[in-house]
Amino acid sequence: MLFAHGFGCDQHMWRFVAPRFENEFRVVLFDYVGFGGSDSSAYDPDRYSSLAGYADDVVQLCHELDLTNVIFVGHSVSSMIGVLASLADPGLFAKLILVGPSPRYIDDEFYTGGFAEADISELLESMESNYLGWSSAMGPVIMANLDRPQLADELTSSFCRADPAIARGFARATFLSDNRPDLKRVSTPTLVLQCTHDVIAPQFVGEYVRDAIPNSSLVFLNATGHCPNLSAPDATFDAIAAFVYGSPERLKSS
């Protein structure tokens, strides 16, 4: 099982979920270039100007570690990175688990991504002018769960530890992407996990992803915010385990 973290985070964000699969699987965690314990000097602005560069890294990592029949678990933007990786090397992956995915964040005709184009422009401009201020403001919004401020503090701290230039590049690649055409080409069995209240990936988006990927199912977690791997690890584990271990009766599909 390969666990991939979301924007501005690192592999530590999976600490409540990933270890629980270690008795049955080889569990692999990693940090994208520029985050966590990665080598920031390896960052190439051209390579990482789109999510395809990150997907290539995932495929390369799997080959370097001689991984086969990979169950890919991607949080947030890593969901689409996993989709792209599965299209680049379809035989590599046994299953995809997409936690809070969004193929496009900007609203379009007959599509609700959750943000107007002006919203995304303002977000990117805010990151450009004051990255630390953006991090402090957005951490609590993305995490939600205001009754547990330590969760927002952790997410904010993770954002702040990232190299601002690399984080801004990753944000542009993330929030300006449109991977809707890629979804229908996915042949890997897929589980979509979504929180019931998520400002980053609203309910419509999860339903859209489920409907667009041919062999997929959608589970709504009894959780709030965009990071159920931290805020609701038990519910996240249960849903993943039901899918991984082939127990569809345990899934609460929409």
Mean pLDDT: 93
CATH topology: the name is Rossmann fold
Radius of gyration of CA atoms, rounded to a whole number: 17 Å
What percentage of residues falls in helices of 4 or more residues?
A: 40-55%
Strand composition percent = 5-15%
What is the CATH H-level superfamily? Alpha/Beta hydrolase fold, catalytic domain
Strand order of the largest sheet: 2-1-3-4-5-6
For the secondary structure, the number of strands is 6
Number of helices in the DSSP assignment? 10
Contiguous runs where pLDDT drops below 50 for at least 5 residues: 248-254
CATH architecture: 3-Layer(aba) Sandwich
- Major beta-sheet overview: 6 strands, parallel
Q: Explain this structure to me?
A:
This protein is of the alpha/beta class. The chain has a single domain, classed as 3-Layer(aba) Sandwich (Rossmann fold). The chain contains 10 helices and 6 strands; from the N terminus they run ββαβαβαααααβαβαα. Helix 1 crosses helix 2, helix 3 packs across helix 4 and helix 3 runs antiparallel to helix 6 (164-175). Mean pLDDT is 93; it is low at 248-254.
